[in-house]
Amino acid sequence: xxxxxxxxxxxxxxxxxxxxxxxxxxxxxxxxxxxxxxxxxxxxxxxxxxxxxxxxxxxxxxxxxxxxxxxxxxxxxxxxxxxxxxxxxxxxxxxxxxxxxxxxxxxxxxxxxxxxxxxxxxxxxxxxxxxxxxxxxxxxxxxxxxxxxxxxxxxxxxxxxxxxxxxxxxxxxxxxxxxxxxxxxxxxxxxxxxxxxxxxxxxxxxxxxxxxxxxxxxxxxxxxxxxxxxxxxxxxxxxxxxxxxxxxxxxxxxxxxxxxxxxxxxxxxxxxxxxxxxxxxxxxxxxxxxxxxxxxxxxxxxxxxxxx
Length: 308
What we know:
By secondary structure, the chain is mainly alpha-helical.
């Protein structure tokens, strides 16, 4: 991008950019609020969104990937690539609509644990290993939507010049920035560790709403700190921490699947630990949106300080 292009930072956006921001988020909400249910839940509009309940896991992943990619690319174009990974942020905010309104881990555990001995730790360990695999599977739509948004941003930021004799504008390849792997991986590490600790701190219960709040707040604050410490310039490194934390939570639950103490009516509805108390897609949805916004706010804070 040329030097005369103004920097766009959350908290310092002009009104046209704010309208673009609202339009991009609205696109995600409208699409997922309308056809999102048929894409995510063709069999039960109020059931848990999980590959373990899907008739065809690959078919569901392909449909969700296409939906997220479409929203990411279109929202990036609407925003004119003025905020990094805005398209992914808009897609995750839109995805939150059907995710919040459908059953969570409680619904999945009630269905999957029916007919098995809940005191059998080996059987329960298998269930949590399946959820670990599902966490990896849901990382695929995330990677595709992030790649689509970043490629669209690169295309929109390509400078174009007019030939002296007129004609079609020709693209000029922008200077590629060197990837600072140390800063990037440091940001991912700080975000992952910080988010895990904060989620445990914020989880006053294992109810879906409480855990989603804890995941959102944890990744927002951890991403803010990770970006502030590493100065890695792009939220993709903070986003990478989200599936890592979810995967670690489910793997740990597979190693320690013992049910928590409580009355019998709660046994089927409570995960072994707070970190594993929401579905993989809920981790992706809440964690990614919060991680991106936390990175934006960190950048905004740094640029608001004239001594930085």
